[in-house]
User: What shape does this take?
Amino acid sequence: MKSSSKKKSAVKHTRKAKPVSARLAKPDTRVLDAEKFLLPTYKRQPVVMTHGRGAYVFDSSGKKYLDFLGGIAVNALGHAHPRIVKVIRREAARAIHLSNLFHNAYQGPLARKLASWSGMDRVFFTNSGTEAIDGAMKLARLYGRKPDEAAGTTAKKHRFLALDNSFHGRTFGAVSVTSTEKYRLPFAPLAPGVEFVRFNDVADLEAKFDDTVCSILIETVQGEGGIYPVSEAFWNRARALATQHGALLIADEIQCGLGRTGRYFAYQRFSAKPDIVLIAKPLAAGLPLGAILTSEDVATRVSPGMHGTTFGGGPLACATALEFLQIVEDEKLLENIRVRGAELREGLAKLAAKFDFIREVRGEGLMIGVELSVEGGPFVSEAMQRGLLINCTHDFTLRFLPPFLITRAQVREFLKLLELVLATTPQQASAPDSAKFPDPARVAHATAR
Ligand SMILES: Cc1ncc(COP(=O)(O)O)c(C=O)c1O
Assistant: This one.
């Protein structure tokens, strides 16, 4: 494989690096330290990633990877974007942290910009997606409590609805509204009052919605679950039922928001608006920052001291986020996302016609899932060997989350690499015949095959 990099950097950027096994033969002390001292929450690949440039990442041997994982949907501008580097340098030399007891120069302007992108009115900054989910659950409980219901009692309107196949994070509240059992069950009993609705099943939604519900939480496009977009019929019914019962419609746009699907927010393909929008991942171009965006109606229930954060909304992260949003506008990245996304899906449809173990291609913009009838893990490892970073969700779906500034040439490079990977990876166990995730809308939302 040819390397397109002609940089004069001290690091030799090449894909012809030693194979992983050879590198393992001489263990890296940094890896040994990690294995000995880190909590074993992740199965990490046996490489040390050192830096990135645009859509490429490099490991400590100098091996170059085309990054179609983007730090799991975070690196929307790739790596080392000059404008982001400049802002981070400038702000690091001014003030990294000041606390929320004072104003800083960027929180207000960033909140204004996010309000204009989303159509929401107020913003609370967090450090992560899961923290935004937990905050939104607290807001929903606040919103549901009637003035005559004393604090400390269980309000009549206290139930949370969430969806089957959802993923909302790892803190206690977020894991309580995450349906996947392997994430939930070890921690039982979880937050009470949660019920799951079948994905895109309007009848089930209607059966479970009543006056005791304070919110319905929806990933507008399910990410970890395997790239499943919520249907318009389901979204509209959720909006109508939430309004009818005085509950909140909450959009989890932590993975699919901020441009990923070719719109500022994925819910903008519908006319009905949510009451709360949650964002994180790409917001500060890799620095930890999330946000809860709410309507004014929700915001009126909040008073000082009810909720807070030490780190959320610091000047370094907010200045960087402001720059990120400005770059998306200046570089017309939404258009690039739509065009490159269409090219990708077209190329993937051709691969689906060629490889019979591709079951379905799903997704919008640069959030794409390819469901296989065989296990996806071996393809991820083979891709890595060949200098391509992808991942696999729910065992059988390959997920692609390239940066928003991906080029036509990089899309072609990706499709070539992927074809090689699909052609050469030994196939493992087959997926069950019936879909692992029985989605009533899977056929309606397939974009290829
Ligand atoms: C849709 C969605 N919600 C919430 C989260 C949790 O975000 P974080 O990992 O920043 O806590 C994730 C993370 O993958 C996500 O994809």
